[in-house]
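Exercise 4. Each item below gives a protein and its sequence. For each, produce the structure-token representation.

Item: ATP-binding cassette domain-containing protein (Actinomadura rayongensis).
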Amino acid sequence: MTPLLEAWGLGRRYGRRWALAECTVRIPAGRVAGLVGANGAGKSTLLALAAGMLEPSAGTVRVLGDRPGSRLGKVAYVAQDAPLYAGLTVAEHLRLGARLNPRWDAASARARIDRLGLDPARRAGRLSGGQRAQLALTLGLAKRPELLILDESAAALDPLARRDFRATLLEAVAADGLSVLLASHLVADLERTCDHLVVLADGRVRVAGDIDDLLARHRRLTGPRRDPGTLPRGQHVVAAVHAARQSSLVVRTDDPILDPAWEVGDVGLEDLVIAYMSGEPVLRPAAGRAKAAWRA
Ligand SMILES: Nc1ncnc2c1ncn2[C@@H]1O[C@H](COP(=O)(O)OP(=O)(O)OP(=O)(O)O)[C@@H](O)[C@H]1O
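Answer:
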């Protein structure tokens, strides 16, 4: 099956600074893929490249097997700032959507606007930030795309609205086989919504894969203080925190942990994300005793 997104050595530069570099990633179709990373990690840049809103400075990207931007009816992109026409009303946005999109689902768009209690006669410029996000998301879903690209679109929604939106999204995934690529800082939301994860740090992909598979391949090891360099081959240290007598490591491995000195625990999604986001070696002096964390 054609992947939702495939990139080879993809990069985007602003002046001399790379916002995204050497990005090689393959996300299978039918996934709800979450893109996570610190502010400035390159998430919006990758999404804008996938949507055809930016040209790469290096490498190649294919979306649903084609050049970004060449399958306009099949891909819907909701940018971070809920792109709407401030002077047009809610109803006018729906009419415009119907005129521009051959697969437009007018009935579900109207039903969603009713359910949200948005006044059809209200101009977009007079809606609250969350209401604007709701309208932009409704327009994106009503296009009935094959791929929906969302750039932190749910961030402005209140918790109830986020739950409602998640349910709508997952219904569309189940009913229409919609693929989704979304950026979010809300790990709890990602956990409930996504089945695939891409972690970016400093413009580079740190890890990518199906979430179940990633969680199955990572372990937290806690035990007497130890140099991560002494671990067996096949146990790749992602993050390490050392206290005076104790080490706590997140390791990636396909092998069982046989060393009885370690207490072995599962790694949750938040731990995994933080471990990969923590990036290059950091030395963190802590009160009273020396602590260090670094990535192998
Ligand atoms: N138009 C631009 N001109 C110059 N630099 C830019 C531009 N857009 C983004 N950048 C830089 O590229 C890097 C990646 O930005 P990007 O917006 O992709 O990050 P992000 O992960 O989406 O961040 P956030 O979580 O804050 O939205 C940042 O260092 C940012 O300052």
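Check: The chain is about 30% helix and 30% strand.
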